[in-house]
Write the structure tokens for this entry.
Amino acid sequence: MTHVVIIGGGATGLSAAFWLRREGVAVTVVEKGIVGWEASGRNGGGATHAVSPLFAEEQRLWPLMDELLGYPTEYQRQRVRIGLSRAQLDLILEGVAIARRQGFIAHELDNRALRELVPFVSERAAGGVLLEYGGHANPQRTLQAYAWAVQDSGGVIQQHTAVGGFETAGGRITAVRTDQGLIGCDVVVLAAGPHTAQLAAKLGIRVPVAAARAEMVVTEPLALIRFGGADGNGVYGRQTLRGNLAYGGGAHEWIDLPDATTPRPVNSPVMQSVAKRVHELFPRVAHARVIRSWAGVVENTPDGRPILDRLSGPDNLVVASMSSVGFGLSPASGRAVAQLATIGRCDFADLSQLRLSRFDGLAADWQHQMGWVPWVHPKEAAA
Ligand SMILES: Cc1cc2nc3c(=O)[nH]c(=O)nc-3n(C[C@H](O)[C@H](O)[C@H](O)COP(=O)(O)OP(=O)(O)OC[C@H]3O[C@@H](n4cnc5c(N)ncnc54)[C@H](O)[C@@H]3O)c2cc1C
């Protein structure tokens, strides 16, 4: 029987494992820490990626996931997007037009209609849009659900096991080298988030991604709004079922990839800026205190799109790097990865624009050219 080894127990790796087990394929997920500890368990929970070739599948699958997985993800369909200014609203409508062209429905809202749906929104808001698609889920619940579903169906999840390299023979990977020993494989899925680049480099493959830190703040619980997902003003997020507003956003901060599993602590100016923009969006609940905040690390490709590709050399390697949009897309990306691992292609979406080869010829110093480099204090730089 084919044995697929998946490196990375985040949303991408676990979803792929889930779909592979549904096909009866033997799966081992190797995770250096615990499942969902990195970006996958720390994100905004948004599932609205209209520019992705996986958008239709993302939207089709989310409403089915609780039943398929057998555990709750707290997925809620629909989302309200708010424009505080006309310019913000126009930008939202540009995104909506992309979804509408694919057959998805959205209703434009004036300030009054907006406030009926989101009572604490600013009275100054130019308007909003109610999306009859998109939506959001609870990342931690979802990751737990994926992991339990994989285990329930006979998949193996090996936590606290770091992959350090590969054994190869005849142009194929024959085993994954871990700090607990070798794991033999027929196919390898590399879904290690920001660490995907370092691991691919061990096979002589360049995966161009830059690591960045993103942050979230969480308020104390408030009265529940209807759809849970309402955002705008440069922040994304949702209201939890308990009533907390959980929001992130703004410019990501480029960082050197930390070796440690836990990203560095939050940075108070970033956190304050997110909190300030949530306050501008929802002035009626500006009294709500921020009770939690955290940071997570995401990887970003030069064009902002994921890399989902079965390579030709080694020909049993699938690269799955989601470039900051990997939570919402995970039901669909995992299904696509499972197909790449088993039949070598995806039969429900055109993934040609997500091939790694689109970056052939990319300048070696692309990160510097784009300005995607960590800031170094002048004193440290001079030392
Ligand atoms: C604050 C924040 C908000 C976000 N908001 C959203 C959002 O609203 N919607 C959305 O779709 N996306 C969002 N994202 C992005 C999303 O979280 C990520 O794109 C997605 O979680 C990536 O999942 P992944 O499984 O590919 O990678 P990860 O979650 O990074 O998982 C990779 C796993 O690989 C493991 N690993 C790494 N190296 C090794 C090794 N050598 N051996 C074994 N295991 C290894 C890691 O420990 C990790 O668990 C957000 C991210 C952050 C940080």
Q: What stands out?
A: The chain has two domains: 3-72+139-209+303-364, 79-133+210-300. The domain at 3-72+139-209+303-364 is CATH 3.50.50.60 (FAD/NAD(P)-binding domain). The mean pLDDT is 93.
